[in-house]
Write a structure and sequence with these properties.
2 domains; elongated; membrane; transmembrane
């Protein structure tokens, strides 16, 4: 069949082949330039069980499932460094997944006010005291609180379950201070 001197079956076949090559090229790029390098980096980090990558707008979401770790801050920083080596200059959001239960969630719920107050007011000693009291109240076997220049890291462990929370210490500047109305 000819339309304006062009063979329709040839055009359709060419379009299908082109589309297939583009999809195949995208898969090859993702597999060899993203997934394999990231997998190689994350395999070196103790405690990483699994990970998942998702692109959301211009941001890359990297979700990492962790096994029980002794120092959440150390593990988080290793993961963050590994991801940044594979994706330099990209906007990245790192999400840490744990194995929490209702008891650990209640303990976190009671602790989070002190954590956020510490971010706002700098009351870190009070935060540590509250987390210790909450840990004792819920008979949490092991807990840890670590702080670096970016985040506060809280972890609770009881039996086979564990909770990890990472709270940013960087507070957004209120719009009225930036001159917005």
């Amino acid at each position: 069949m000819l339309v304006h001197g062009l063979k329709i079956p040839v055009i359709i076949l060419t379009a299908i082949l082109t589309f297939g090559l583009l999809l195949g090229g995208q898969w090859l790029y993702t597999h060899y330039q993203v997934e394999q390098p990231l997998a190689a980096q994350l395999e070196r980090v103790n405690g990483v069980d699994d990970y998942y990558i998702q692109k959301k707008n211009a941001k890359l979401l990297v979700s990492v499932s962790l096994a029980p770790v002794n120092n959440l801050m150390h593990t988080y920083r290793e993961i963050e460094q590994a991801v940044r080596e594979v994706f330099p200059g990209k906007s990245i959001e790192l999400i840490v997944k744990d194995r929490r239960n209702k008891l650990l969630e209640r303990a976190w719920y009671e602790s989070q006010f002190a954590v956020h107050q510490a971010v706002a007011q700098g009351s870190y000693v009070e935060m540590a005291r509250v987390i210790e009291e909450v840990s004792n109240k819920y008979n949490i076997e092991r807990y840890a609180v670590n702080i670096d220049q970016d985040n506060i890291y809280v972890q609770f462990h009881k039996d086979e379950v564990y909770l990890y929370e990472i709270v940013s210490r960087r507070r957004p500047i209120p719009e009225k201070l930036l001159g917005y109305r």
